[in-house]
Design brief:
Oligomer: single chain
Radius of gyration: 21 Å
Strand content: 25-35%
CATH topology of the largest domain: UDP-n-acetylglucosamine1-carboxyvinyl-transferase, Chain
CATH architecture of the largest domain: Alpha-beta prism
Shape: globular
Number of domains: 2
Bound molecules: shikimate-3-phosphate
Number of strands: 24
Length: 425
C-alpha cells in the first residue's frame, strides 16, 4: 500500500461492523434455537473464519452482503467437524470456540496461521481444565494447535489475573454446559459484548462491576442482531481527522460501549475536538455518530484502568501522540506483546523509521512530539492494526509511505484504503 500525504479529510463515512460483536453473533446464533438475522456483519477475514468453523460443524449460514442468517440448532446441535477447525489469524475465534467445544460430545482440533500458533493459550487452558475440560496443547507449549476431547464440565468461581474478554467469554460459553453457577471476577472490566448478547439470547447472567455470574439455561433463543460500526476501526479515522489540518469528519453508526470507548476519552483528554451525536441503543449496545475536527493535541498518560477499554487502539494512539505537543506515556500495557504482533516492538521500530520520537518500555511506550514525520518504507508484520496505524501516520508525513504486506488489513477492515481516498482533499 502506498500512502501520500493529504491536505485535509472531509466527509461523512460509515465503517465496517464490530469484529467482536460479529464473532459473537455467529456463535450465539449457532447455539440458539431458531433463525438469527445479523445486519451490519463484518465481512473481514477473522469473522469469516468463525463462519467457516461453524459451517464445518453443520450450521447453515447464508451471507448476502453484510446480512448474515444463521440457522441455530440449539446448545446441543453442533456436529463433529470432519477436519481440523482452522481459525486463520483470529484469536477471538480460537479462544471463544474452545469454551464451546470443550463440553461437546465429540473431539476436535483447533489450529490457525503462523501468528495464532505463537499466541499464549495457557490463559484459556488453565480455567477450562479447572472446569474439567480435556484440552491440551498438541505441541505441549501452551499454544495452538489445541486438541479437545469433549467432556462434562463443572461450574466454578474464577479470579482472572488478566482483564481479557476472550478469557472471560471462553469461560462464560463453557459455563452454559455446567450444572451450577459460574462466577468470574476480572481485575478490570474487559469488553462486555458476550454478557450483553447472552442476556439478549435468553441466558441467565448478572453483572456487578467486575463480577459476572452466569447460570446455565435449557436453551438459548434466536434473536436478530444489528451490529454497529467497530470503534476500533473508527479509531483510525478519528485520529486521521484530528491530526490532519483543516479536516472535518462524521463517522456514522459507531459502537461506543463504555468498555470500548477508552480511545474517545483519551483523545478528548488530549484536547481532541470530538462530539458524540445521536446516541442510541442496538440490543443493549450504545451507538453514536462521531464528529471529529482537526485539533491541536497535547500529550497524556494512558495506564491501568484505561488499558482494557482501548487495548486494540494503542498503535493508533501512538500515532496521535507523535502529533501532540509534549510527551505521551503508555504503560501497564504488556498485553500488547501477545497480540497479532508484539505491538510494542513493531510500532516502535516502524514509527522510528518514519522519524517519530518513540521508545519502548517494559510495558508500553513513550512518544514525544515529532514535527517532521518522514514517509518511509515500513513493514506491517502481518498485523492489520499496525498496517493501518502506519497508513494514518503516512497522511501527515512528508513524501510517500510504502507499507509492505498490507493485505492483512482485510482481517478487520476491508475497504480501508478506498475509504481514505474517498475523503481526501
Ligand atoms: C477481543 C478481546 C481483546 C481484543 C481482541 C478482541 C474480543 O483481546 O484485543 O481484538 O473480541 O473478545 P483480549 O481478550 O485478549 O484482551
Amino acid at each position: 500500500m502506498i500512502i501520500q500525504p493529504v491536505n485535509s479529510l472531509k466527509g461523512k463515512i460509515n465503517i465496517p461492523g464490530d469484529k467482536s460483536i460479529s464473532h459473537r453473533a455467529i456463535m450465539f446464533g449457532a447455539l440458539a434455537k431458531g433463525t438469527t438475522k445479523i445486519t451490519g456483519f463484518l465481512m473481514g477475514e477473522d469473522c469469516l473464519s468463525t463462519i467457516r468453523c461453524f459451517r464445518q460443524m453443520g450450521i447453515e449460514i447464508t451471507i448476502n452482503k453484510t446480512l448474515v442468517i444463521v440457522e441455530g440448532k440449539g446448545l446441543y446441535g453442533l456436529k463433529k467437524p470432519e477436519q481440523d477447525l482452522y481459525v486463520g489469524n483470529s484469536g477471538t475465534t480460537l479462544r471463544l470456540m474452545s469454551g464451546i467445544l470443550a463440553p461437546q460430545n465429540f473431539d476436535c482440533v483447533l489450529t490457525g496461521d503462523d501468528s495464532i500458533l505463537k499466541r499464549p493459550m495457557k490463559r484459556i487452558l488453565e480455567p477450562l481444565t479447572k472446569m474439567g475440560a480435556n484440552i491440551v496443547s498438541v505441541n505441549k507449549n501452551d499454544k495452538a494447535p489445541l486438541k479437545i476431547t469433549g467432556s462434562k464440565l463443572n461450574n466454578m468461581t474464577y479470579y482472572s489475573q488478566i482483564a481479557s474478554a476472550q478469557v472471560k467469554s471462553c469461560i462464560l460459553l463453557a459455563s452454559l454446559y455446567t450444572n451450577g453457577e459460574t462466577k468470574i471476577v476480572e481485575p478490570v472490566l474487559s469488553r462486555n459484548h458476550t454478557e450483553i448478547m447472552l442476556d439478549n439470547f435468553g441466558g441467565n447472567i448478572t453483572t456487578n462491576d467486575t463480577t459476572i455470574i452466569c447460570n446455565p439455561v435449557n436453551e438459548l433463543y434466536a434473536r436478530d442482531v444489528t451490529i454497529p460500526g467497530d470503534i476500533s476501526s473508527a479509531a483510525f479515522f478519528i485520529v486521521a481527522g484530528l491530526i490532519t489540518k483543516g479536516s472535518e469528519l462524521i463517522i456514522e453508526n459507531v459502537g461506543i460501549n463504555p468498555t470500548r470507548d477508552g480511545i474517545i476519552r483519551v483523545l478528548k483528554n488530549m484536547n481532541g475536538n470530538i462530539e458524540l451525536l445521536n446516541k442510541r441503543d442496538y440490543n443493549g449496545e450504545l451507538v453514536a455518530d462521531i464528529y471529529v475536527k482537526s485539533s491541536k493535541l497535547h500529550g497524556t498518560i494512558v495506564d491501568k484502568e484505561l488499558i482494557p477499554s482501548l487495548i486494540d487502539e494503542i498503535p493508533i494512539i501512538a500515532v496521535a501522540a507523535s502529533c501532540a505537543e509534549g510527551k505521551t506515556i503508555i504503560k501497564d500495557a504488556a498485553e500488547l506483546k501477545v497480540k497479532e504482533s508484539n505491538r510494542i516492538e513493531t510500532m516502535v521500530s516502524e514509527l522510528k523509521k518514519m522519524n517519530v520520537n518513540i521508545t519502548s518500555t517494559d510495558d508500553g511506550m513513550i512518544i514525544s512530539n515529532s514535527p517532521n514525520i518522514i514517509g518511509s518504507k515500513v513493514m506491517s508484520y502481518d498485523d492489520h492494526r499496525v498496517a493501518m496505524s502506519l497508513a494514518i501516520a503516512g497522511l501527515v508525513a512528508t513524501g510517500e509511505t510504502k507499507i509492505n504486506n498490507s493485505n492483512c488489513i482485510n482481517i478487520s477492515f476491508p475497504g480501508f484504503f478506498d475509504l481514505i481516498q474517498s475523503i481526501k482533499n
